[in-house]
Specification:
There is one protein chain. This protein is an all-beta fold and 114 residues long. The chain contains no helices and ten strands. Strands 3, 5, 6, 8, 9 and 10 form a six-stranded mixed β-sheet that branches. It has a four-stranded antiparallel β-sheet with strand order 2-1-4-7, with no helix packed on it.
Length: 114
């Protein structure tokens, strides 16, 4: 099975950019993580695994047109860590899974208190 791709999409000043490598986000920004896979089978789902040194979280979305968009708002230091996409599909009475490369994310800037 082919390996899924993972991208970070960040919108600043109305311009959206996508990155595949480790990325730095400005604190307070909205961002999304896109998981996609080359079309091979219909359906399936994407599991986004977020890990820090002391915890892990999972988010799951159905694959739509061989991709899934995970939205995050108001980036903070809690969003720092590594992200991976896992594609799961059930085909011919078997479950198949494939995992992406790691996307490392850091958050920069100072939190402004009001």
């Amino acid at each position: 099975m082919v390996e899924p791709h993972i991208f970070l999409s960040l919108s600043t000043d109305g311009v959206s950019t996508a990155r595949r490598q480790g990325s730095e986000l400005p604190i307070g920004s909205d961002f999304s993580i896109i998981c996609s896979i080359r079309p091979q089978y219909e359906g399936g789902s994407f599991q986004l695994i977020f890990s820090t040194s002391n915890s892990a979280q999972n988010h799951i979305l159905p694959a739509v047109n061989h991709s899934a968009l995970f939205l995050f708002f108001d980036a903070g230091y809690a969003h720092q860590g590594t992200y991976r996409c896992v594609y799961h599909v059930y085909v011919f009475s078997h479950n198949f899974s494939s995992i992406s490369q790691v996307l490392s994310l850091t958050v920069s800037g100072k939190l402004i208190e009001t």
